[in-house]
Amino acid sequence: MHSPTPAIVSQLAARRFPRWILLLLGLIYVLPGLLGRQPWSGPDLASFGVMLDMAQGSGDWLQPQVLGERAAVQAWLPYWLGAASIQLLPFLPADLAARLPYGLLLALALHWTWKATYHLARRPNAQPVAFAFGGEASPQDYARALADAALLALIASLGLAQLAHESTPDAAQLAFASLLLYACARLASPNAQWRGLSAAAWWLGAVGLALSGAPWIGLVLGMGWLLWSLAMVRSGPRVRGDVWLLVFCASGTLLAALLAWQLELPRRFEQLSDWAAWTDLAHWRRFGRLLLWFSWPAGLLALLTVWRWRRRLGNTHLLLPLWFAAVGMASCWLLDANDRALLLALPALACLAAFALPTLSRSVTALVDWFALLFFSGCALLIWFYWLALQTGLPAKPAANVLRLLPGFKPELDWTLLLAALLGTLAWIGALAWRLGRYRPALWKGLVLSAGGSTLCWLLLMTLWLPALNYGMGQEPISRRIAALTPGSSCVLVHGLSASQITGLQYHGGLELERARRQRRSSCQLLVVEPKALNTLAQTVDLSQWRALRKVPRLRENRDGLLVYLRR
After folding, report:
1. Looking at the structure, do residues 392 and 407 belong to the same domain, yes or no?
2. Where in the sequence is the domain holding 300, given as residue range(s)?
3. SS3 content of the chain, % helix, strand, coil (to 5)
4. Nearest alpha-carbon partner for 482 in 447, 507, 460, 499
5. Residue 250 to residues 77, 202, 449: CA-CA distances in angstroms?
6. Same domain, 405 and 464
7. 433 & 412 share domain
8. Reported pTM
């Protein structure tokens, strides 16, 4: 005997979010960070370097590398997408061309999360309580309202913005995890049409994860769903067709397993947390803090869903996203609280978060709303305050603090970016006025301010602060300084540099680089060394042929930089 559903929703509360506002919100979230932003140091710039090598013909498309050295993440598909885009769009800056496929992947991730929630919410066990005299929400309207809420919860997640806008394998993994979640939800729906197309989407999601550097994630997610499906297939009305669909999906899981072996999955387990970390309270605290802020507010609402629906956790509309979220969180924990691994759990957490909304009291909804209002309004005010101080020099102390972090940066006023920031701020004020007014109830109403505030802060950072962030978080300043020290058109030897540093010197500095090797004779007149690799420099080059020229700081003199040597 089933326990009663905790969801109580009237037809009025199941009204849909205005489509044009939802589309506009998605565009405002996706486009900033896609246009005008340079690749930033770290995985973003390193991945761009692999794509650039492939596009220019100097890199092997089956062995991703930067300047002849194997890439840290062996993920074929994301690099192929970026490299192909660079080749197909030669009239665009290479970094912009490489990011365009990732903008599409982010938009698809949002769309697939919406579709997954819609299909799960239409299942009979997910429906709200039927009223004695009618008036409860219809299944279609209820599912659509919850899907709108899931999309808002995903956009509102604090950890999504930066990582999802990078051109890295992690961003591609997010899209394929969302696709796999959608395909599983659609295949689990008893009345879904075009089941063959759903199986193809499932296959593409599992294999896409494997080709994007997460083969074991695709393998574990796929195996979990297949085992559940095998247990349920005999009760389905289309037994024979379902068996063939499962065989087809199993082939995708098998391919993911083969790719895991090809990508040397056993060696990757060397990166996992030490077994002692299972009893390390500091590790648990670090993981807990990351989970709390990275997934806010979707993580909190997902936890409320688990509690409110605790007697129905075996139902498909809860079990499926719970499995996806658990795999993503386990991956994050095993990789020493890595935020990039937790990114894959966000679509499932957003889906779970939506099912909490029909069970929440007004006081809990108001608490989430007031937090969003105060937090994001405060963040927006700080962003505007420091930007005005930087532009005008008043107040003097905040302006000096910013310039101390960005030595050599010259603030300039871009009227186009300023107009976009002003329009976004006005839209936020309008959203506040709408939310604080007395309007009809709606399931998604409690997440509007969270999603709008997250989008506003991302928009302000990617407009007002975009030049400063490009200067401070990229490799352009140090690359141009080193290029200015290079004699004529000479090549440059490098030793100990990371993939992002090498890419910065090549792309921003326009330098021809070679790796320093003891057996190779080179005519390069300049040698650039990472200070951490000094202890191996004498084993790589003949130091009697070089004299130290200077240390070039990345930004500030007393921080990290690169050592430059000139041939004697």
Report:
1. yes
2. 73-194+267-359
3. 65, 5, 30
4. 507
5. 21, 10, 42
6. yes
7. yes
8. 0.94
